[in-house]
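hey all, quick one before standup. I had two proteins in the batch that finished overnight and I want to keep them in one place so we stop losing track of which output belongs to which input. First protein below, input sequence then structure tokens straight from the run.
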Amino acid sequence: MRSRKPYIIFWPQYFDAKRSRSNGRRLSKKFAIDKVSLEDISKAARNLGYNVEIERNYKYSRTWWDDAGRVLIDLKGKKKNKVLLEVAKEIRKLHTKA
């Protein structure tokens, strides 16, 4: 098994506004996003200067029937919740531009 260090896993379910906290959402409704994809997360993280990898063949354990995939982000010493919020705000910016 490959070591993930220094990467931390970010699942699209963390950002999904349609999910409850018990089903995987990690953000408040205020910052949650409708229809977030792996590409949205990776593009937002890259725009913020983080190193990113996409892994498409993994499934989130709470919702194993959903679409597969996760994003690995090098946090560069920051806390996961802080980076999660930064990425969510950046995704919002990207969605408003499109």
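OK second protein, same deal, sequence then tokens:
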Amino acid sequence: MSPFIKNAWYVACFSQELSNQPLARTLLGQRVVLFRTASGAPAALEDRCCHRMAPLSRGEVEPDGIRCGYHGMKFAPTGQCIEIPGQTQIDARMCVQDYLVHEQHGFVWIWLGDRAQASVSAIVDCHWHTDSQWQSTQGYIHYRANYQLIVDNLLDFSHLTFVHKTTLANNAFPNAQPAIEPFDQGIRLTREIRDAQPSPLHQMAGKFEGRVNFWNRQAWWLPSVFENWAGSVEASTPGPAHEQPGAFLLRHFSLLTPETEHTTHYFWIQPCQFPRPDDTLIGKVKKGIDTAFEEDRQMIEAQQQNIHDNPEAPMRGIAADKALNMIRMMIKRRLQHEAEALNP
């Protein structure tokens, strides 16, 4: 059984990473080359010339395709070979696998499974990243860890108090368990903490001088996209915190694409709205997120090393594991469903 859900959209790269130069990337264990065609449209092929198995990413992009840098065979964005130097007849079998790609809201998404099941309507809406009403920042991390360990981390906010003391910590988190609601593509989590000390990052971004009411409305979209609509507002503000003016708002997305079973591409975006205009704040938010995510990376990679060194050691569960266990079970079921479809 494949370790990865194949019938899903994954982020292959940020839009600005893609040009008329080949971009090599391993996604779900498959070597892929990405590039832009003459029209600017994204394209993706397996990174393997069918002649002598040379990586196409070592070649050059031309207006009508990509040319292998070894013997000069040229492949159209459809994967079909359209030119062989010194040869006029081209066997139809001279081709490489092409993949569905779709560009939307600053990302190039890729579908590596059964294309008959692909629909762009299933791509998670991240439009806040390119919305002029929001200031946004972004980042990328390469993890030496299985993506499900990162899933665990994102779905358990009780760790914020202990791992992110200078950035995201809020002492109320460990005792503020979210309400959890499953839906057909994942789970939703709702949490509100009233009259609390703001996290260092929220205090800086909202310029709060006292205590706040904090909320987050989260969603986990199978297999690997985390959305966190969160914010803080002064604690004296009545009513539901997320409906009040004067709040610091963020619409965070963490988008994970497994590279291999033990490595992961981690893309993130952080659209924000600030209660007090200040063009310097978005850069400070990025610095804070970079710091927090580096803290996560160090912890999770150390965790992965321990798992590697002690593969038979069991993990003992606690109450805070409820959401992450639900997603692990949903992923397991999807993997089983895909395996059964391939081997009925």
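Flagging for whoever picks this up: Residues 127-337 form a domain with the Naphthalene 1,2-dioxygenase Alpha Subunit; Chain A, domain 1 fold (CATH 3.90.380.10). The mean pLDDT is 92.
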